[in-house]
Amino acid sequence: MSLTLNEFMRRLALEPAVLVSVSAAEGSVPRGPGTWMAVFAGTALGTIGGGRLEFEATHEARSRLAAAALKQVPAPQQVRFALGATLGQCCGGVVHLGFDRVTAADIPALRARLREALAPVALFGGGHVGRALVNVLAALPYAITWIDSRDEVFPDPVPAGVLCEHSDPVQVAVRTLAGGTHVLIMSFSHAEDLDVVAACLLRQRTQGDLRYIGLIGSKSKWAVFRKRLQERGFTQQELSLVTCPIGLAGITGKEPEVIAVAVAAQLLCLRA
């Protein structure tokens, strides 16, 4: 998660740690490959699933930190943990954990490596709903780029791990989004919203690599947008790629925080 990642980097600048990561898994396990936790001498960040597995992994990581301080020969990087009889966890699968001792010198490479594991989200719009949504998503496994044509709109500070981008015209930013990005459109004007949607559909036409295109608004707003986008030459099939209204069905309420939770829940369903 972005918040955990940034706290990891902050602490790592002060003291070494062991990065414990799930490198492979067999059968029923608490967390899958790519999951990680950072173990320091006195604390830990993140989770690989809890229970006895995490207890044993934390103990192993701290033993390695102590051995490194004594300049002892490092232990093998990969360790296999059986979750059944050995650890007494009912999952019953097998987890292969990697143990990497890291220091402040590793921060640039680690930040890039761990951020790549986060699903990219591009949020167009710095209004009330945008702010509420950024606060929710910042604690979830997403790499967030927050985009607006108004440079002064972003709060100070922004949530940890969120990248702010000023783009005028705002739709130009669509060209440089990472492949697989989930796009959320909620700018301060319908004209900007329409231009961003059109830019996303043009990118889908040529590259087809956006994971999700979501537009805030009512069914009547989308009816107007559909007509205008058809006039720009977009087909019914292309228009079907846009989700409007956005948010998980069944979560009602128009408060920014409620909308933010509904949208975050919808994105999490897509990950599943």
Describe this structure in words.
The chain is of the alpha/beta class. The chain folds into two domains: 2-114, no CATH class; 118-271, Rossmann fold, CATH 3.40.50. Helices cover 37% and strands 21% of the residues. It is built from eight helices and eleven strands. It has helices at 2-12, 51-69, 107-116, 128-137, 190-206, 219-231, 236-239, 256-271; strands spanning 17-26, 36-39, 44-46, 78-82, 94-102, 119-124, 142-148, 163-166, 182-185, 212-215, 242-243. A six-stranded parallel beta sheet has the order 8-7-6-9-10-11, with helices on both faces. A hairpin with a 4-residue loop joins strand 2 (36-39) and strand 3. The longest helix has 19 residues, at 51-69. The protein is elongated, with a radius of gyration of 22 Å. The two termini are 16 Å apart. The model has no long low-confidence stretch (mean pLDDT 90).
Helix content bin: 25-40%
Sum up the overall morphology in one term.
elongated
In sequence order, what are the helices and strands, one letter per element? HEEEHEEHEHEEEHEHHEH
Q: What distance lies between the first and last C-alpha atoms, to the nearest angstrom?
A: 16 Å
CATH class of the largest domain: Alpha Beta
Beta-strand share of residues:
15-25%
**Nearest-integer average pLDDT:** 90
The SS-based structural class is alpha/beta
As for the number of domains, it is: 2
* Low-confidence segments: none
In the CATH hierarchy, the architecture of the largest domain is 3-Layer(aba) Sandwich
What is the CA-based Rg, rounded? Answer: 22 Å
CATH superfamily of the largest domain: NAD(P)-binding Rossmann-like Domain
Extended strand count: 11
Strand order of the largest sheet: 8-7-6-9-10-11
Largest sheet: 6 strands, parallel
Which fold name is given in CATH as the topology of the largest domain? Rossmann fold
